[in-house]
């Protein structure tokens, strides 16, 4: 794509599911949005030289590195995009920020509060020099959730009293699904809680504008041993029957109740065992004047109950969030034609590039993501030995 805009040269670490998704976003964003800087897919890094070259060819990256440190050292890269498991986030992000590179880091920000605090401190020091960091809570950029936030901000549902959030997947329901890095605490930090519960926490806080101040939680692991090897299909699949087993060291499911700074209360559930629910990221908010409800499996809609309407004609209505007046949608297809999972990631790139060009800190900042990390940690403290209520 030829352009006379200044380049934003991107270096990315990791090229699996999230890497492919981010590659698509970097490539697509300037084709649909008028960005002030032009993202270039400059360098892709991964440890396996042959595999990273193949991935770079397929996804459109100009060059490769086999060591992320070499990537961070390069003068021809302006931004590092981290799409690796959580155990590597802190080291890569801090090195990149110290080298003067902007950073986009996948969620959850880190595997511990201590790592997240160091990352947030590095991001603050970098911001003073005009170098910015953002965490990839991509669901914020789903038009329906962005619209929900807008309606809350306009006072359309009044004072928020309840937040109900569920993130339901089923890719581990099959006990023969193979062991993966997502089930190994030393790599992923936690299980359903950090992988998908973190999205719910961020979305609840983003839409409501409130902050979680206390939690009480329960974590459980239903299947403790899983086959090593086998064939991955999507996130799950079929493990090998003859390769032995690995021990699952994370939670399979998490539930927790929460109090928010306004006095509102919330209930949350995150699981990979909700058979039949593939990616049902749901959020319902009840206020004094109305309610909003969202389900990612129906992501182009938002349910709205306007409690100010006469009882005779009141009821939940379905907003088709595909009109040009809705967040992000005007840059895509004609009304009613709808968007998909990948668009949240493209919008994430759009907002990040705009913030960098404007010289303002993008959101969610590492500070905001540290806040989510503290909520995750408080839930783990609560669940450990049934320790009850924990302040965040
Ligand atoms: C797996 O549970 C996963 O890919 C998450 O890691 C993503 O963040 C979520 O968007 C979809 O599910």
From TrEMBL:
It comes from Arthrobacter bussei. Residues 147-292 form the GFO/IDH/MocA-like oxidoreductase domain. It comes from the Bacteria. PANTHER family: BCDNA.GH03377. This is Gfo/Idh/MocA family oxidoreductase. Keywords: NAD, Oxidoreductase. Coiled coil: none annotated. InterPro entries: Gfo/Idh/MocA-like_OxRdtase_N, Gfo/Idh/MocA_oxidrdct_glycsds, GFO_IDH_MocA-like_dom, NAD(P)-bd_dom_sf. GO terms for molecular function: nucleotide binding; oxidoreductase activity. Gene3D superfamilies: Dihydrodipicolinate Reductase, domain 2, NAD(P)-binding Rossmann-like Domain. Residues 8-126 form the Gfo/Idh/MocA-like oxidoreductase N-terminal domain.
């Amino acid at each position: 794509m030829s352009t006379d805009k200044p380049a934003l040269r991107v270096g990315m670490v990791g090229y699996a599911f999230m890497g492919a998704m981010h590659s698509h976003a970097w490539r697509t964003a300037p084709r649909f949005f008028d960005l002030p800087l032009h993202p270039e897919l400059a360098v892709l890094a991964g440890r396996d030289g042959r595999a990273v070259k193949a991935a770079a060819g397929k996804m459109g990256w100009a060059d490769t590195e086999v060591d992320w440190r070499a990537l961070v050292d390069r003068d021809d890269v302006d931004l590092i995009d981290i799409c690796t498991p959580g155990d590597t986030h802190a080291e890569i992000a801090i090195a990149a920020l110290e080298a003067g590179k902007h950073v986009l880091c996948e969620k959850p920000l880190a595997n511990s509060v201590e790592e997240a605090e160091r990352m947030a401190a590095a991001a603050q020091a970098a911001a003073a020099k005009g170098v910015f960091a953002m965490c990839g809570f991509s669901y914020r950029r789903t038009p329906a959730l962005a619209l929900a936030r807008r309606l809350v901000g306009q006072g359309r549902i009044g004072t928020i009293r309840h937040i109900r959030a569920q993130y339901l997947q089923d890719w581990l329901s099959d006990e023969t699904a193979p062991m993966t890095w997502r089930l190994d605490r030393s790599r992923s930090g936690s299980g359903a809680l950090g992988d998908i519960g973190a999205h719910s926490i961020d979305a609840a806080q983003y839409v409501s504008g409130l902050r979680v101040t206390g939690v009480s939680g329960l974590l459980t692991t239903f299947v403790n041993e899983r086959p090593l090897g086998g064939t991955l299909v999507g996130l799950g699949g079929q493990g090998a029957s003859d390769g032995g087993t690995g021990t699952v060291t994370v939670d399979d499911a998490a539930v927790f109740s929460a109090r928010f700074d306004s006095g509102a209360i919330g209930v949350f559930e995150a699981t990979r065992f909700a058979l039949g629910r593939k990616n049902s990221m749901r959020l319902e908010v009840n206020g004094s004047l109305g309610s909003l409800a969202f389900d990612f499996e129906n992501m182009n809609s938002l349910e709205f109950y306007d409690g100010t309407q006469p009882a005779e004609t009141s009821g939940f209505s379905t907003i088709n969030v595909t009109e040009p007046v809705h967040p992000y949608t005007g840059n895509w297809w004609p009304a009613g034609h709808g968007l998909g999972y990948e668009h949240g990631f493209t919008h994430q790139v759009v907002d990040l590039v705009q913030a960098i060009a404007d010289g303002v800190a993008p959101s969610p900042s590492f500070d905001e993501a540290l806040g989510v990390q503290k909520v995750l940690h408080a839930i783990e403290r609560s669940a450990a030995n049934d320790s009850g209520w924990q302040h965040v």
